């Protein structure tokens, strides 16, 4: 309730951008309409990419609106090239051909690592794994970025917003901040720090070992933090407030220090980003990722199995016992599809006809043809003159930069603000980023 009404307030604040794109917001108390059934990671309704990674089944039109989540595959990614990294504009859910789904711009570096870049005017770069881990172990070896307002992150994030984090603020290069969330409910007592040598100068290996009973954060093989499920019991809700659902690995670089962000976020991020900083190279801030290894958990019975093709939810509770490890397909025919109609806009050329004129938003943050939202909340016809994506091969979307928002990641540890204002800010952050992204996309059209 609080979250939903705050979200509306945030949307009103960002009304200029949102009015231009007519995005429909969604949340636990405002599910998406059938015409744009998928609630994206950033709380906006659409089809296509909105229904793939990050789609929250609890806030979508129905539990089966989101496309099923590809199950875990153990694999090491050495980042010696950009193979296996696919722009979210081109990804249809086939995890056998894509390891990472990208928003923003990754650059190959010296044939052995990948730079996540953040040029001025962008909201940085996000790589999200195409498969989901339901417990298991993930290690990432990287150097963070640096500079005021510049945040590097390595997190696990589930579609119902269970989250396990490492976050790095660019003015605190000897601190790794760790955190966790159950279903995105903020609690700023959950943040703790690990001290280490300079994270920009040195590669460190950051590890998350996640079982049904324990989360262990390790840096260079040394335990930095342990969370036990038994310490997370919520007697009011009668459940464990512990991360327990299949999650994607997300690697990101993003600007916490944008003037349009909340004061608490800017302060947490170490101040405003300086876009003329000598710390930038080739016109961007960057973080250097050397490798990632995902090792699936190998339970023989749920929770934590990886025997099927995909994970789905059978109840809006979104707890571990509502996850089904089954055989539903994960691949859309086009970016007009959703879990309700996986074959929409298929190969037939007719997809480019009338459907193009009425297609709802298909790429989060890129506003091609999002449906209008009337004051009464009903959905109106499409945005005329849009350059919507009628097929997977569409390249009409915006430039490579600035196409993701970072609503899923936390901020504000150690802040003295009250819980409710932090809650507000967490929600606000997501929508403000979405608004920025929308403006960037509009300018690119
Ligand atoms: C935050 O988490 C702590 C420890 O898990 C718990 O004791 C506390 O009650 C939580 N606070 C809120 C507001 O949920
Ligand atoms: C899974 O969820 C059920 C229902 O909330 C709970 O009773 C059980 O303890 C959970 N198991 C794990 C491993 O989290
Ligand atoms: C327990 O769960 C309820 C319902 O989700 C929530 O409002 C409350 O903040 C939680 N309490 C703690 C201590 O986490
Ligand atoms: C998988 O199972 C084996 C044997 O029980 C165990 O040694 C290993 O740690 C497990 N792997 C993971 C990622 O849990
Ligand atoms: C973690 O480190 C940051 C930056 O130094 C600091 O602002 C924050 O208060 C610390 N958090 C905790 C829980 O110690």
TrEMBL record:
The alphabetized UniProt keywords are: Cell wall biogenesis/degradation, Glycoprotein, Glycosidase, Glycosyltransferase, GPI-anchor, Hydrolase, Lipoprotein, Membrane, Signal, Transferase
One GO cellular component term noted in the UniProt record for this chain: fungal-type cell wall
Q: Which residues form the signal peptide?
A: 1-19
Query: Could you tell me the Gene Ontology terms of the biological process aspect for this record?
Result: carbohydrate metabolic process; fungal-type cell wall organization
Q: Which residues form the active site?
A: 163 (nucleophile), 167 (proton donor)
Q: Which parts of the sequence are annotated with region: Disordered? A: 345-423
Q: Mind telling me which CDD domains this protein's record contains?
A: GH16_fungal_CRH1_transglycosylase (cd02183)
User: Which Pfam families does the record associate with it?
Assistant: Glyco_hydro_16
Instruction: Name the Gene Ontology molecular function terms of this record.
Output: chitin binding; endochitinase activity; glycosyltransferase activity
Catalyzes what?
Random endo-hydrolysis of N-acetyl-beta-D-glucosaminide (1->4)-beta-linkages in chitin and chitodextrins
Name its cellular compartments.
Membrane
EC number, as in UniProt: 3.2.-.-
Where's the GH16 domain? Answer: 62-277
Q: How does it sit in the membrane?
A: Lipid-anchor; GPI-anchor
This protein's source sits in the domain of life called Eukaryota
* Listed Low complexity bias regions: 345-355, 372-421
Q: What does this protein do?
A: Dual chitinase/transglycosylase that plays a role in cell wall architecture. Chitinase and transglycosylase activities are coupled. Required for the polysaccharide cross-linking at the septa and the cell wall. More specifically, transfers chitin to 1,6-beta-glucan in the cell wall.
Family membership, please give it: Belongs to the glycosyl hydrolase 16 family. CRH1 subfamily.
Provide the protein name: Crh-like protein
């Amino acid at each position: 309730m609080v979250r939903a009404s705050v979200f509306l307030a945030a949307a009103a604040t960002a009304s200029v951008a949102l009015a231009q794109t007519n995005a429909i917001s969604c949340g636990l108390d405002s599910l998406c309409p059938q015409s744009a059934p998928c609630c994206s990671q950033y709380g906006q309704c659409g089809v296509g990419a909105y229904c793939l990674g990050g789609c929250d089944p609890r806030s979508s039109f129905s539990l089966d609106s989101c496309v099923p989540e590809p199950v875990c595959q153990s694999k090491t990614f050495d980042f010696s090239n950009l193979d296996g990294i696919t722009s979210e504009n081109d990804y249809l859910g086939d995890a056998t051909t894509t390891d990472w789904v990208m928003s923003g711009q990754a650059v190959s570096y010296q044939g052995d690592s990948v730079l996540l870049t953040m040029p001025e005017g962008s909201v940085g770069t996000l790589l999200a794994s195409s498969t989901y881990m339901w417990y298991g172990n993930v290690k990432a070896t990287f150097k963070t970025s640096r500079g005021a307002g510049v945040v590097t992150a390595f997190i696990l994030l589930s579609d119902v917003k269970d989250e396990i984090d490492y976050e790095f603020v660019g003015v605190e290069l000897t601190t790794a901040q760790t955190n966790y969330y159950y279903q995105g409910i903020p609690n700023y007592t959950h943040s703790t720090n690990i001290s280490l040598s300079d994270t920009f100068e040195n590669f460190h290996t950051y590890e998350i070992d996640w079982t049904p009973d324990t989360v262990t954060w390790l840096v260079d093989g040394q335990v930095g933090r342990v969370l036990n499920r038994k310490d997370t019991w919520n007697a009011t809700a009668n459940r464990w407030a512990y991360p327990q659902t299949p999650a994607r690995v997300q690697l990101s670089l993003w600007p916490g220090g944008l003037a349009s962000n909340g004061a608490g976020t800017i302060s947490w991020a170490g101040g405003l980003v300086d876009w003329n900083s000598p710390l930038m190279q080739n016109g961007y801030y960057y973080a250097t990722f050397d490798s990632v290894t995902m090792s699936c958990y190998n339970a023989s019975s749920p929770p934590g199995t990886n025997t099927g093709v995909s994970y789905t939810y059978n109840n809006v509770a979104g707890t571990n016992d509502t996850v089904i490890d089954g055989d539903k397909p994960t691949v859309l025919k086009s970016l007009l599809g959703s879990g309700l109609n996986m074959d929409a806009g298929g190969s037939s050329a007719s997809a480019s006809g009338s459907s193009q004129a009425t297609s709802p938003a298909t790429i989060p943050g890129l506003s091609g043809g999002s449906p209008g939202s009337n004051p009464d909340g009903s959905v109106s016809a499409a945005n005329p003159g849009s350059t919507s994506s009628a097929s997977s091969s569409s390249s009409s979307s915006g430039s490579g930069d600035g196409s993701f928002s970072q609503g899923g990641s936390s901020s504000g540890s150690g802040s003295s603000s009250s819980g409710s204002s932090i809650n507000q800010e967490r929600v606000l952050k997501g929508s403000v980023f979405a608004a920025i992204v929308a403006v960037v996309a509009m300018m690119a059209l």
